[in-house]
Specification:
Blueprint (H helix, E strand, L loop, with lengths): L9 H5 L2 H23 L3 E2 L5 E2 L13 E4 L2 E5 L4 H7 L5 E9 L15 E10 L3 H22 L1 H6 L16 E4 H10 L12 H9 L5 E4 L22 E6 L4 E8 L4 H10 L8 H9 L4 E7 H9 L20
Parallel strand pairs: 1-5, 7-8
Antiparallel strand pairs: 2-4, 3-4, 5-6, 6-11, 8-9, 9-10, 10-11
Helix pairs in contact: 2-4, 2-10
This protein binds adenosine monophosphate and magnesium ion (MG).
């Protein structure tokens, strides 16, 4: 991969041939995903952009406040709270949701972080982690098939060979636990905490050793939000997963079974330093009962970057906001 210079203006970015090729590939990924999920019985909902509370997130990203008639509201960092709510209407939902996260400045060099991005967000009532993983796998395989079938000229123009996906098309994807990933990294002489997310650099190293996407499961409790369900048999282990792309492209997806019982959610909020009083509408809803579920979010620009073989994730956005860079 060669270095590419971020666009000086929307005109420069949007009139590049490479941007057009990339956005056509992204368009094929979106249409393929919508058709695929609709065919599986999912209902697409339009996601909220603002609300009194949003995903607390982690890893140092900050939320953006707005003044909502004298009340402090947030731009969505993820749709998770509304995804759980949506299951009161339908058993299987998805949305293509915009997220705004003021990521820490150090992420401007990861090639994987934007301050504004989109998730293909899926939630399934009554599902297990394994059910959700199978749906995530199906979306990625189906999207890659569609791009190869319909956008081979764009792939070729971007220098991306369809052979990069030969192993991907032989799914199911491999899986390892977070503990295995930590052991692998330590075996390579790298430092990696057993109680935290995989470091950015280590994630890239694990990814670069793979030739097709793979799952990492069972992250430790302290590393994730209050909504990832804790195992009932192994305390401290979450019933969650990440899907990691090969070739160094890194994380594509995070997902999990969800906590849905009021007392457990309040406990998990407190354990993770969140004040339950902030979550009024959400906790009222949970107290009255919501279904158990599992779901995930696939970073659309990350998936596009991987499929198109791009150096950096900003190339996969029509209007990129790179952390810390003042832009259109
Ligand atoms: P998370 O729940 O934080 O893991 O976010 C879900 C997915 O969104 C991740 O697996 C990434 O694919 C994508 N994502 C998260 N943060 C960013 C970011 N700052 N820029 C681009 N994509 C992101
Ligand atoms: Mg994640």
């Amino acid at each position: 991969m060669t270095t590419v210079v971020p666009p000086a203006s929307p005109r420069e970015h949007l009139s590049r041939e490479s941007t057009r090729h990339t956005l056509r590939i992204q368009n094929a990924i979106l249409s393929a995903t919508r058709e695929h999920l609709t065919g599986l019985g999912f209902t697409e909902l339009l996601p909220p952009i603002i609300g009194p509370v949003t995903d607390p997130g982690g890893r140092g990203s900050k939320q953006v406040d707005i003044d909502f008639y004298g009340h402090r509201y947030k731009l969505m960092t993820s749709a998770i709270l509304y995804k759980q709510a949506s299951l009161l209407a339908f058993d299987k939902i998805f949305c293509i949701a915009p997220n705004v996260r003021l990521e820490p400045l150090e992420t401007c060099n990861t090639n994987r972080h934007l301050a504004e991005f989109h998730q293909i967000d899926v939630e399934i009532s009554g599902a297990t982690r394994e059910d959700a993983m199978a749906v995530a796998e199906g979306i990625v395989v189906n999207a890659v098939r569609r791009v190869i079938a319909e956008r081979s000229a764009e792939l070729a123009a971007l220098g991306r060979s369809p052979e990069a996906f030969t192993e991907l098309l032989e799914w199911p994807f491999d899986r390892m636990t977070h503990a295995d990933a930590v052991a692998n990294l330590r075996g390579l002489g790298l430092e990696q905490s057993a109680d935290a997310e995989i470091d950015w650099r280590n994630e890239e190293i694990l990814s670069s050793k793979a030739s097709r996407p793979f799952f990492v499961t069972d992250y430790p409790k302290g590393s994730r939000g209050f909504y990832d369900r804790e195992s009932r048999t192994e305390a401290g282990r979450l019933r969650n997963f990440d899907l990691i792309a090969p070739e160094g492209y890194g994380e594509l997806t995070s997902g999990s079974e969800r906590e849905y019982e009021y007392a457990r959610i309040v406990t998990r909020m407190r354990e993770s330093g969140e004040n339950p009083a902030k979550y009024g509408w959400y906790l009222d809803m949970v107290r009255d009962g919501i279904p158990g579920s599992a779901g995930f979010g696939i970073g659309l620009e990350r998936l596009t970057r991987y499929v198109a073989g791009l150096t950096s994730v900003w190339q996969a956005s029509a209007y990129p906001k790179i952390p810390g860079v003042v832009s259109a």
